[in-house]
Amino acid sequence: MESASQSEGFGRVATYLRSPTIIITIILIGVYVIVATAVGDFANPIGTSENNGNLLVLLLMQCDAPTPIFPWTVLTTIFLHAGILHIAGNLLFLLLFGFILEGQVTKNQWFATFFITGISGSLSFVALDVVSSGLTGFPSPSSGLDCAVGASGAVYGIMGTAVGLKVVLLLIFLLGLNIFAGGGTPAHLGGLVAGLILRKYWSLGGKSFRGI
Length: 212
Prior knowledge:
Elements: H1 4-17, H2 20-39, H3 45-52, H4 55-60, E1 62-64, H5 73-76, H6 84-102, H7 107-136, E2 146-148, H8 152-175, H9 185-204
């Protein structure tokens, strides 16, 4: 027979496991472990996989020439991370702002925010490559592919949706966040803009939507 405290404990765990923030966090960690195990490098799995020509990663990572070689990678690349610090930083802000967003929207809206802003970030990266290719010829076969990985576009999107532009800019200033870091500027900006649009859209839908 279970005690009342045990039932409450199981209930709390079940609640957390239904959290979209926790679900996505577990998926991101799981994908990182699978990829790192497959290439035999937990510190720098993407770099090692590129050097070794690992087929799994090459099929999932977004590489533009100037448009994506495989169109599905605008989605799958969101779940890949270059290294431990890369995924740790994204998970930190995903957990912080993901829970804030959960208090403002439905579960379906939360998942929609993650995927829409993440894909928007990927497409922003593509757009920059297309424009650069038209203006300068980069990327080109001689210069190699332009590749990107990570959920930072979705994370910036969730930040923008959860707290709005003013708070995001304040946090960037106070915490010293570098939105231009790692060559991911277009993805960061694209995800953030998409998040701000979704924030406005959800509000117009008649739902109370307060930031912090």
